[in-house]
Fold this sequence. Notes:
The complex is a heterodimer. Chain A contains no helices and 38 strands. Chain A is an all-beta fold.
Amino acid sequence: SLLFPDSKPVMHGEVLSPEYPQPYPPNLQKRWDLSVPNGYQIRLAFSHMDIEASAGCYYDSLTVLYNEKVLAKFCGQENSADGHHPGNQPILSPGNRLTLLFQTDSNNPEKHQNVGFSAQYQAIDIDECSAPEPRDGSDSLCAQICLNTLGSYICSCHHGYELRSDQRTCALSCTGGIFDEPQGHLSSPGYPNSPPHALSCQYVISVDSGFTVTLNFSDNFHVESVDTQQGPNCLYHWLQVTVPHREPIKLCGAKSPGVIETNSNTVRLDYHTDDEGLSNGWSLDYSTQRVNCPPPSKVAQGRVTPMLAEYFYRDYIFVRCDQGYKLMMDGHEIKSFSAMCQNNGQWHLPLPECHIIDCGEPEPLLNGGLTFLSGFQNQYRSVFQYHCNEPFYSLLGGVNVSFTCEADRKWRSHNDVVVSPTCLPVCGKPIKHVSGIQR
Amino acid sequence: IIGGSDAPDNTIPWQVMLNVNQNRGGGMVIADRWVMTAAHNLIDKNSKVATEAIQIYMGHNNVDTILQTPLYAASVHTHPGYNNPNNVDYNNDIALIKLQDPVTFNASIMPICLPPEGAAYETGIMGLVSGFGITKLGEQRFALTNKLKYVLVPLVAEEECAKSAVSWKQESANIPDLTNNMFCAGMREGTKDSCQGDSRGPYALYDHQRYWAAGIVSWGVGCGKKGAYGVYTRVANYLDWINKTMQEN
Lengths: 439, 249
């Protein structure tokens, strides 16, 4: 029987003659049916063989069969010239099964007790795709592309074709191809050879909206054109390039269009041929570039970073103000600013402004006042000085200290003092005196 | 003030007029919340008078005007050593009144300085005593002034004052003792003196371009009498107590 319902496919195993490594008994007829999963073949290697040698392995023998067909018959020892043994050479089964048949007669030589054999087997993947083309004219495994897999194989087709339901042959199909990788290659069916007539193929290149597609046609471009009084005309065969919101372009002739920058993230290519004429077709590589955003304008009293020659989709810019200035947007102060170049080529936020900071009204001084010495009131770098209401009060310490509006929005003196001074009352000094000693 | 003159505006800007239980007296501004005065009249039957009984006036030389802007006491701090139930012991006659609200100083209100460290009370030096008290003495007639008066009286040597005190005691019983916390000032011949109504007011000495509070009008035997000097609390003896009281309050 070719079927072994009880045997379970395994990936490897060992076969030992009965009572190995003790001498095998007489009158044996032992059979092993080895199997591995479909798509694999069996590699059998003997680690030891010691079977009574005889001409044609007449008395004792180990027979290897595939589908009941004898592949080999062994006896003897690996180090002996007698008999017929495999030595170190492994045996490869044509399929995923192999049968071993061990037979012994009733007599064993008295001098030497033969111990039989030990063998190991393992599953080896069959590369179905490397099988030679059948000579009998029958179909090859795959009509176009064969891809080996572990335990099996799959067929595939060139671009412009699709696998038929028989999973072997390919049918022309060039519609509905969507290319969404950032770069790629596409060509007309059969290119560079002439394809079947009456083609109507559609290819759509569609990438993320922040990118634009550039087409780069190879030099070998051939789409039949018709010479008319107005010049070559794409009357029967054409390749139409369609970009959203723009007039489609029909291409034909023998001259490659070269590079076409579409400035769009979506391009549709329609290839049309009629029943007649000859077009060898075309091929192209496409690439994508990030969309540009306009260079940011300058920010007065601030800095835009990084400064680049060009800004592209997903680039970020930051704005920092000079010391003493703060970021303002829509009338409100913001702590930081960053903007991203969007997929529409616009910055996602308008640039902020830098406004000079303000330290606020200085603390009033009890029994005193203050005088601005420079700068616009309360703004960065403004300087004021406290004074006391003299002659009735005087400054503690007696020294006038100037306060400057610093970048941290605090009024600070040269000694980094933040607190305002104190006015001390003047005692015992009336502005007028009683008439004292008079003569 | 006996034998004195009207004080021109803004000449004695530390002068305070105090009314305690309707009795006119004086005081002096020493800080924007503090008035220094004497303890007598602020203690009634061994207890401090209520702050509500005290009206404080300053900033004007005319009584009619000064009465228009009373200030009020927040607390009264008499010297703990003042103990004078029978009006015969004026030792430690000093007190501080804390105002409810601070005053802003200007030409008409200005503090008088406290005595400098090691203040010198030199005999014969002229001191300025001022007040709204009695100006004339007659047989049966006193005249109270509505205008701030001042007079310059010299500081009297301790020995001379002590000698006078002996004679006062010969003339009258219940004359208070003189202590080291007091000094005398006045004219041997009388004629210039402080008097009733000036009590508790300032006796100022002028030194280094500043007036400082040398004394507080405390007591005396009569006013302007020959050989009867005025007795003043010696403020320099109380600097520690004054600073401590103000800091703690």
